[in-house]
């Protein structure tokens, strides 16, 4: 049975959109139909590179194109709600880059609109769909080394401060927490669940955006998750689950295609290579395409409830470290 070809649009044509489009072209039965930027020249260049049929100089024009089935939103964080609502209003399925929006109130509005219009909406947190991460989730669920005792997860890299760049621009949601801190938080929520208490501390750039955020999640059974994001230094960028009978380590770049090392307390460690052949976005694209073809309006992996918990946790950390974007 031939799969329905899905016509994709992309709104926001920065670095992550280039990666997404590269992987989109590796997926069967999809077509990059249209792209949109506020700059026509940028849109034309992107469309030419990835063979998109249409290049728009406004997001509104793309959203009105009736040939589009799904849109990937890759604009700065502060625009996610506005851009998502624009597409949902036109009945277009939306895959919106993480963080879903700036706060819980915005996410609630997006989810309500998706339900009202009966249109598919999903937060694009690609890590959830990567085979190595799914493998670790199952290994933890199966308790191959017993109960988890501690989690350590970090994400850090150095960039020279430049307020003109989106990464540092506080008005666009810049800083370490929303941009990369979301990943360590995701690792805790997706494996250990909701913490009973959160401690956090941060350092800040001169414009008020956070440069580093260190978090500790504590759970009822005494398990702790030590989490960190930073734009001040290159860190190992690993996620390590310390269990009763051994450890499970997702190696460098744990949030992206990576390897997993199994380290038993007794015996020989083993590293598993998952043979990735794409950048890694192809897995969430395949998942989203399947949902769309099946007429689903919510993911059974990246559920609304999980996205709501994720943004609520980000809000809680922001409150503790006194980070205000308003």
End-to-end Cα distance, whole Å, is 51 Å
Oligomer: single chain
Percent range for β-strand residues: 15-25%
Biggest sheet, strands in spatial order? 8-9-10-7-11-12-13-14
Helical content stands at 25-40%
Total of DSSP H or I helical runs spanning 4+ residues:
9
Outline the low-pLDDT stretches.
none
Shape: globular
Average pLDDT rating = 97
Order of helices and strands: EHEHEHEHEHEHEHEEEEEEEHH
Radius of gyration: 20 Å
- What structural class results from the helix and strand content? alpha/beta
Number of beta strands: 14
Largest sheet: 8 strands, mixed
Question: Can you tell me about this structure?
Answer:
With 326 residues, the chain is an alpha/beta fold. 33% of the residues lie in helices and 25% in strands. It has helices at residues 15-24, 40-50, 59-63, 80-88, 104-117, 131-141, 176-192, 282-293, 304-321, and strands spanning 6-11, 30-36, 54-56, 70-73, 93-97, 121-124, 148-156, 197-204, 210-218, 224-230, 239-243, 246-250, 260-264, 270-272. The chain has an 8-stranded mixed β-sheet, covered by helices on one side. Strand 5, helix 5 and strand 6 (121-124) form a beta-alpha-beta unit. The longest helix has 18 residues, at 304-321.
């Amino acid at each position: 049975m031939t799969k329905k070809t899905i016509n994709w649009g992309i709104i926001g044509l920065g670095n992550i959109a280039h990666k997404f489009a590269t992987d989109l072209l590796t997926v069967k039965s999809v077509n990059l139909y249209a792209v949109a930027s506020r700059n026509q020249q940028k849109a034309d260049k992107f469309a030419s590179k990835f063979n998109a049929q249409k290049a728009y100089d406004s997001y509104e024009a793309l959203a009105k194109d009736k040939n589009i089935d799904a849109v990937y939103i890759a604009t700065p964080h502060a625009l996610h709600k506005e851009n998502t609502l624009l597409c949902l209003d036109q009945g277009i399925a939306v895959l919106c880059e993480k963080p879903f929006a700036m706060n819980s109130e915005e996410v609630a509005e997006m989810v309500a609109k998706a339900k009202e219009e009966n249109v598919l909406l999903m937060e694009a947190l690609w890590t959830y769909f990567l085979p190595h991460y799914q493998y670790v989730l199952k290994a933890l669920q199966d308790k191959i080394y017993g109960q988890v005792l501690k989690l350590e997860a970090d994400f850090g890299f150095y960039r020279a401060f430049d307020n003109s760049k989106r990464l540092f621009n506080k008005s666009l949601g810049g800083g370490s927490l929303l941009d990369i801190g979301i990943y360590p938080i995701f690792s805790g929520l997706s494996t250990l669940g909701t913490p009973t208490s959160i401690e956090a501390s941060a350092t800040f750039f001169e414009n008020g955006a956070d440069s580093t955020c260190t978090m500790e999640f504590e759970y009822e059974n005494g398990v702790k998750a030590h989490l960190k994001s930073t734009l001040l230094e290159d860190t190992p960028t690993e996620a390590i689950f310390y269990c009763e009978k051994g450890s499970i380590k997702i190696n460098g770049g744990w949030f992206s295609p990576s390897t997993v090392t199994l380290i038993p307390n007794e015996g020989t460690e083993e590293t598993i290579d998952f043979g990735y052949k794409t950048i890694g976005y192809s897995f969430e694209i395949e998942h989203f395409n399947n949902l769309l073809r099946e007429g689903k309006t919510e993911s059974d992996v990246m559920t609304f409830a999980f996205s709501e918990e994720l943004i609520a946790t980000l809000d809680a950390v922001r409150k503790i470290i006194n980070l205000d974007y308003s």
